[in-house]
Amino acid sequence: MLRIENLTAEVDGKPILKGVTLEVPDGEVHAIMGPNGAGKSTLSYALSGREGYEITGGSVLLNGQDLLDMEPEERAAAGLFLAFQYPVELPGVGNANFLRTALNAIRRTRGEPEVDAMQFLKLARARMKELSMPEDMLKRGVNVGFSGGEKKRNEILQMALLQPKIAILDETDSGLDIDALKIVADGVNAMRGPNFSALVITHYQRLLNHIVPDRVHVLADGRIVTSGGPELAHRLEAEGYAGVLGEAA
Amino acid sequence: MPAVEETLDTVRDATQGAYKWGFETDIEMEFAPKGLNEDIVRFISAKKNEPSWLLDWRLRAFEAWKGMEEPRWPAVTYPPIDYQDAYYYAAPKQKAAPKSLDEVDPELLKTYAKLGIPLKEQAILAGVEGAGESPADGRLPVAIDAVFDSVSVATTYKGRLEKEGIIFCSISEAVQNHPELVRKYLGTVVPHTDNFFAALNSAVFTDGSFVYIPKGVRCPMELSTYFRINAKSTGQFERTLIIADEGATVSYLEGCTAPQRDENQLHAAVVELVALDDASIKYSTVQNWYPGDENGKGGIYNFVTKRAACRGKRSKVSWTQVETGSAITWKYPSCILQGEESVGEFYSVAITNNHQQADTGTKMIHLGKGTRSTIVSKGISAGRGQNTYRGLVRISPKAKDARNFTQCDSLLIGDLCGAHTVPYIENRCLTAKVEHEATTSRIAEDQLFYCRQRGLSQEDAVGLIVNGFCREVLKELPMEFAVEAQKLLQISLEGSVG
């Protein structure tokens, strides 16, 4: 269970999150929707501990552990995964090497045995097949020369390998065509189960047709202003943020 | 070494930061008197029982040196060096040239074991006099010449190499046993008057490796020299000469370390390579001399002249260097591409952290028709390090259709370091093609965060990104050393971020 309580954060001295309170119980998928500038990306970076995102108040607990006390890599080991809106390129670093290094770093912290190159290849190949990823993506540099869709699938592959307790998907649908969107959604849905929860951040309802959320929250001006079931996403699509927010306000 | 001392050593190693090779071996040494004059040159020559032509050559070099000045053009700064305040000959006391590893002082063997020369090498060092000559894992063995201060203390696998007609020994031994080869080639690539440090080396060089690969022979194993400076206030002046006769092929690797001391020590080596028709030499360096402490105190001055003559048609020389150590590095492994269609390559990674300074690069001198050269240089600056790539590509009017491709990339970590690129291109041939690409970048915050979000520590993330940056160079190293080099890159940058 991820429990965010009255979280406030600022960037460059400017308050962005102004008291976010949210609970994502184990096994549930929650969506966060909101207009541009609402603080959606800031929330994902504040939760994952990125430099420059200054927490000024509140608390974040993952299964009772205080995330805000941890370095980004400790949060990752604790089970937090962020699928980046813009996955970063690492020239010269082989994708397979990167994935295995990450997997073993996390396994080490968790006290699990490391996987060797052969075991890793077996694991990765199975997951890649599910995500319709060509095998040569393992040999290429991390995200280097990947298309937008390939980058996002690479994020989902990492998630599938690292087996987080909670995944934050930051606008994973942006820049995806409908086929890629389905593949990504299938990847997330395959993970669903009692030990996995997700926070799906998106502008559009489109993704939520494929990843049906248990709850939908609307983030506006740094606060959750309204919450509801999957039907809230449909209302947003039909009435726009202004319509729904006007009513909430 | 008594147990107490060893414990103290271990503690020192563990607490004195990143340089893990900084210990000192307690062994009885023989020194020449401090200072440099004609008598010292004669002393060294006599100590090595050299023929008169070599003594004369040394003396000519010494005369020339006296009239020369230290080069001032490199982008490095250091206080004046007092050439009279150093020992020019320091050797561990032992019986005349040990015939096998059994006769080598155990203290020396222990030193090399402790240096963590790749384990595979250790297995071989220990196993030379044993039953088999092939290590259990089935990989090809590596023959090693171990140079301790001024002398070579052991060379492994000589017997096996001799069966192929290959000569691999210390240069002092070569002077005794193969004087005609030494006399024919010594100083023909780097003349004794070439530059200040080469002249100094020619006058006082004490040891180094000698390799001769006969016609048509492909050397069956990696050859390697491991240089260790141990004694205080000594300069190390080794001289290496490698000759690949027609159609011969050899891969050679050198490694080096030195104790951690507050004073600066001078290392002025000369390496000469000669490749005849269709011969190929691959020369790899993993340079890890003591770099000084985080405040810039101590460390080795690494002022080295390395040059290859591709004399034969279709001959090829490939330099690969990973430079992580030394307080100051001044070094330009070069190729004179004389033979038609000869090929020169230079792959370099140079790291400067803390107060380290490096001015390094290469010279590709195209003389023959259809000669080709490739330069790939990766400079990494961290802390207050200053890193300069300085390279010359010269194409003579006769080098028709010559080609050069140069790529220079710099990576900056932090905002107190510097990267500089100084390419000189002199093209006097209309049909030649010369390309130069250069980039400068920083390790981006988003790259670090991306890695850390995936569970990597800050230091592992830097290591991964830096190794990715250097990949084109590291893949040129023999495989077992590439792994070592990767670890070394990461250790050299410890504490450079955050």
Automatic annotation (TrEMBL), chain A:
Highest taxon above the source species: Bacteria
Pfam families xref list? ABC_tran
Q: Where is the ABC transporter domain?
A: 2-246
Keyword annotations from UniProtKB, A to Z: ATP-binding, Nucleotide-binding
Tell me which family the UniProt entry assigns to this protein.
Belongs to the ABC transporter superfamily. Ycf16 family.
Q: What is this protein called?
A: Fe-S cluster assembly ATPase SufC
Q: Which organism is it from?
A: Roseomonas populi
State which gene encodes it: sufC
UniProtKB/TrEMBL annotation, chain B:
Query: Record's NCBIfam families?
Result: PRK11814.1, sufB
Q: Which organism is it from?
A: Roseomonas populi
Coiled-coil features, chain-numbered ranges: none
Q: Where is the signal peptide?
A: none
Segments forming domain SUF system FeS cluster assembly SufBD core:
227-469
* Gene expressing this chain: sufB
In this record, what's one Pfam family? SUFBD_core
- Where would I find the SUF system FeS cluster assembly SufBD N-terminal domain in this sequence? 163-219
**Family listed:** Belongs to the iron-sulfur cluster assembly SufBD family.
In terms of superkingdom, the source organism counts as Bacteria
What name is this protein filed under? Answer: Fe-S cluster assembly protein SufB
